[in-house]
Automatic annotation (TrEMBL):
Pfam families: CHAD. Residues 4-255 form the CHAD domain. PANTHER family: CHAD DOMAIN-CONTAINING PROTEIN, SLR1444 PROTEIN. This is CHAD domain-containing protein. It comes from Candidatus Nitrosotenuis uzonensis. PROSITE patterns: CHAD (PS51708). It comes from the Archaea. InterPro entries: CHAD_dom, CHAD_dom_sf. The lineage of its organism: Archaea, Nitrososphaerota, Candidatus Nitrosotenuis.
Amino acid sequence: MKMRQLESEQYFTTLQRIVQKVQEKLTQYLDTTNEENVHDVRTSIRRLESAWRIMPKKLREKPKIRDFVVAYKELFKTNSQIRDFDVISKRISSNSTILELIESKKKKKMILARRRAEHASSMRFPRLTVKDISSEKLERRFNKVTYRLVERIHMLIPKAVENEKNVSELHELRKNCKKLRYLLELVDDSTSSDFVNHLKQVQDSLGAIHDIDITVDFLHKLPRKYKVDMLVKSEYDLRSVLYQKFVQEYRSFKL
């Protein structure tokens, strides 16, 4: 994969848009904390983190910038747990007893998420100008992070496609594909659109597998009185089908 160019003026404009968007989505989230707004604020935080990750170190570690991003990352972490509970609830919707347990756990996370969201909303991103961002340093950092992600993906793929039981490798591959996708979206380059779309396709396939993995993991941790053996078997059967689909997609996808 060829490296892309990223000019400081283009990046500055994109960064402003991302910061504005994440604050807008947070306001909507605080107003109505439903599944859609949880998803939207999580997506906007991913884009914020990608933009922050490629800043030159001196700028990236400025306290006001770092603290702003960290506040949103903490919210993302808690919302990820809430999102997992929503996924599990949908997958086992026929079992009212387990659904009650999930709802109880979710409510506790919602309290923490609300607190972290309010903290993030109090943060202000520092005023920057295009002069604060050197094109040379920015491009060097962008290429370094991109290359590192591509390298990680290449390292993970062999284990991910050789055995469906390599859960951690599949999960890490999904996360790195997602990071690479959001990173490349920072570059206004039409030649990358097919590649980004294919990354999203692989990411979605791995995401469907991951949803089953978190569901099975949750079910395995329940006391035996919940009798989840049939649920687990059903999830594993579907997972095998989805895994084979992912392997076939990978064979047509060259990074």
